[in-house]
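Hi F.,

I've been meaning to write this up properly since the lab meeting, where we talked about keeping a consistent format for the predictions we share between groups. The idea is simple: the sequence comes first, exactly as it goes in, then the structure tokens exactly as they come out, then a line or two of notes. No screenshots and no reformatting. I'm using this chain as the first example so we have something concrete to point to.
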Amino acid sequence: MPESAVAVQIALHYFTALTAGNLSNAMRYVADDVVCDTQGRRVSGSRAYRQFIAECLPAIRGATLIASFGNETTAVLIYDLTSPPRLRCRGADRLVVDKAKIVNIVTVVDKVPQ
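Output, unedited:
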């Protein structure tokens, strides 16, 4: 991956750890002062973000990365998530990286028609 895609590399490491259920490893890539905007809600700080994600993780039964792109400071990930009972969602994250840590996340998730 080109050097200019540093944010994409960090985002992919984060995504891989998170979707494997390894929250501790995923949080290694998250800044202490992270801000996440998702589904009409703002979550500020790594402790609050960790708690928010910990509440979501048990519902995820599978994840498939569809696309990733970005540059040295910003990455976009598009993915499918599955959770019981047969619910499939498509998500997109825009992640901003500073000093090798994710400082801002905007997440949009919607159900995929069956």
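Notes:
The longest helix spans residues 6-19.
The mean pLDDT is 91.

If this format works for you, I'll send the rest the same way.

G.
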